[in-house]
């Protein structure tokens, strides 16, 4: 028995999807001979070409004179210089930017970056006022639920819904009639493409958010932390056109996790040197710097152009094909008279299904699907920071695109028959 601080007890709780994962792991452990189709996973698939790229980069590193420098010495907090240089060159060339090394920070995974940003810009000021961390479009990445040391700082906004009733499709949009970004806002965070929904908010919508955050009268501007974990140029998990945005108050944040390197923990922030310096100091205090082994591998993969090439030509189509299998199976098997709506599959490695007027909760549906050996994630875990009650929260599920085509098709057929039964009871 140990006494925990208030922060200690808060940070030792699991939030959102991590809490569900416990139930899933338990279910799989007690499966006996049953074969579950697990569509809860957020772990990317090990695609052979991608694994080979990282294997080659490792082999080159091991064979080079650089090896000792990389693993036997401390480095700078900002990151490993060859990786920073590779990113600067690649982004300048792709997007016509004029970045220098002062615009870049490497972190041990992008989750760490959101933790630094949420606490550097959100929470209590020296004067004691609470600065909010605004999530402009809920549902959002469940990992934002635990990033702030002050839970009360997180504030999410309900979206508006674009419905296509005939096609059984929908799309969330930011609700600019409700969204407030003002002197109470410390920072804004959003994922694009979005986990869990696969949404890509439009270039205009993103511009509108960054402008709202920049134009604070004679006050300082509010940073917009743009989570590009699924965006181009790597992993390029966008299935619709999207233009990455840079500059001003927007901090563009990459992750190499979905480009096949989640175990090496590499996140990258690109933006205003003033923002980078704040986050870099935060990192120095926390962990000195990111491990350099993965950074040295990544420097090679990026500088050679191979990572960008594989992302566009292998990773993107791999998941896009999975979405097609899922959507075609649902179209063919879900009853037309049930008000089901699949979110437009615009990117990421998940799909999001809304079952309007579902006669049970999302948690009960999750349990029901488990009885048919299918595991999904109940949607209500993906609304961190949403303070108001909203029936919609309990009518959605997240379905991972990391299973095989056959598994996805079989699971969606089972889901369709469960859904048909559930609605016909009422
Ligand atoms: N942001 C989003 C939207 C994610 O889906 C994930 C991981 O699933 C992360 C951030 C965390 O990624 P990283 O491995 O870079 O910490």
UniProtKB/TrEMBL annotation:
Keyword annotations from UniProtKB, A to Z: Aminotransferase, Pyridoxal phosphate, Transferase
Cofactor: pyridoxal 5'-phosphate
MF-aspect GO terms: pyridoxal phosphate binding; valine-pyruvate transaminase activity
Keyword Nucleus (UniProt): no
Highest classification ranks of the organism: Bacteria, Bacillati, Cyanobacteriota, Cyanophyceae, Nodosilineales
InterPro entries xrefs: Aminotransferase_I/II_large, Class-I_PLP-dep_aminotransf, PyrdxlP-dep_Trfase, PyrdxlP-dep_Trfase_major
Cellular component terms (Gene Ontology): cytosol
Listed name of the protein: Alanine-alpha-ketoisovalerate (Or valine-pyruvate) aminotransferase
Domain spans labelled Aminotransferase class I/classII large: 69-415
GO BP, one annotated term: alpha-amino acid metabolic process
């Amino acid at each position: 028995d140990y006494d925990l601080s208030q922060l200690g007890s808060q940070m030792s709780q699991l939030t959102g999807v991590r809490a569900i994962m416990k139930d899933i792991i338990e279910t799989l452990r007690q499966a006996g001979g049953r074969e579950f189709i697990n569509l809860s996973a957020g772990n990317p698939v090990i695609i052979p070409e991608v694994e080979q790229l990282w294997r080659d980069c490792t082999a080159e590193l091991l064979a080079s004179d650089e090896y000792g420098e990389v693993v036997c010495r401390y480095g700078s907090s900002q990151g490993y210089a060859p990786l920073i240089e590779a990113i600067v060159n690649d982004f300048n060339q792709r997007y016509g930017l004029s970045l220098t090394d002062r615009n870049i920070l490497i972190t041990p995974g992008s989750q760490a970056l959101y933790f630094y940003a949420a606490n550097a810009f959100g929470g209590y000021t020296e004067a004691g006022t609470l600065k909010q961390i605004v999530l402009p479009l809920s549902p959002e990445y469940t990992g934002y639920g635990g990033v702030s040391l002050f839970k009360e700082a997180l504030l999410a906004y309900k979206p508006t819904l674009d419905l296509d009733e005939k096609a059984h499709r929908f799309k969330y949009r930011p609700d600019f009639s409700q969204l407030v970004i003002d002197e109470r806002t410390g920072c804004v965070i959003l994922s694009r493409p979005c986990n869990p929904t696969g949404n890509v908010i439009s270039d205009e919508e993103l511009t509108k958010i960054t402008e709202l955050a920049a134009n604070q009268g004679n006050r300082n501007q509010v940073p917009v932390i743009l989570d590009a974990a699924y965006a181009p140029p790597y992993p390029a998990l966008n299935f619709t056109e999207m233009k990455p945005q840079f500059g001003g108050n927007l901090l563009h944040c990459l992750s190499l996790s979905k480009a096949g390197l989640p175990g090496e923990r590499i996140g990258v922030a690109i933006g205003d040197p003033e923002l980078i310096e704040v986050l870099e100091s935060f990192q120095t205090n926390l962990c000195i710097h990111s491990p350099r082994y993965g950074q040295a591998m990544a420097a090679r993969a990026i500088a050679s152009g191979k990572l960008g090439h594989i992302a566009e030509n292998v990773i993107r189509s791999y998941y896009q094909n999975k979405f097609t299998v899922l959507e075609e199976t649902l179209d063919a098997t879900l009853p037309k008279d049930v008000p089901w709506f699949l979110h437009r599959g615009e990117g990421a490695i998940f799909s999001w299904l809304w079952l309007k007027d579902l006669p049970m909760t999302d948690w009960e549906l999750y349990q029901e699907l488990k009885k048919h050996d299918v595991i999904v994630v109940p949607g209500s875990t993906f609304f961190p920071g949403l303070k108001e009650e909203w029936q919609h929260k309990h009518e959605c599920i997240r379905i991972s695109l990391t299973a095989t085509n056959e598994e996805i098709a079989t699971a969606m057929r089972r889901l369709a028959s469960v859904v048909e039964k559930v609605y016909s009871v009422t």
